[in-house]
Amino acid sequence: MNAVVQCLSNTDLLAEYLGLERYKLDLSRRRINGIVKSEDTQHARGEVTEQLASLVRALWTLEYIPQLSVEFKSIVSKYGSQFRGNSQHDALEFLLWLLDRVHEDVNLSSCSNNNNKTKAPGKVRVPSPSTVTQSH
């Protein structure tokens, strides 16, 4: 987990998106099947992204405390039962799970007419895990 978080926190666009809290706009207007869902009905979603963002922000602002890692691990275990306990896990498996979770949380590509080649100015598109692995 540590290696994945370190890599993601050093990925400029993602670190900026999380560290500067740009993801919050996407969390507040999540779309499911093209219909905007309110924060009330989907309050549990976004916890993984929020914790990852807190961790990345703390790493970049030199405000890191070990409790942040404990909280991140707790949230990951809550939503990813395969990551419960202290066993070693495959880093790629965790990376794909985490990227998928962030993608689901911010749900940037839910509109069926959305084209991957078009980007709104100033927005960071979080790639789906399948897109990441296709290039390798």
Automatic annotation (TrEMBL):
Superkingdom: Eukaryota
Entry-linked InterPro entries: Papain-like_cys_pep_sf, Peptidase_C19_UCH, Ub_carboxyl-term_hydrolase, USP
EC number(s) stated in the UniProt entry for this protein: 3.4.19.12
Disordered: annotated span: 112-136
Domain USP: 1-136
UniProt GO BP: protein deubiquitination
GO molecular function, a single term: cysteine-type deubiquitinase activity
Catalytic activity: Thiol-dependent hydrolysis of ester, thioester, amide, peptide and isopeptide bonds formed by the C-terminal Gly of ubiquitin (a 76-residue protein attached to proteins as an intracellular targeting signal)
Keyword Transcription regulation: no
Keywords tagged on the record: Hydrolase
Protein name (record): ubiquitinyl hydrolase 1
Organism this protein belongs to: Oncorhynchus mykiss
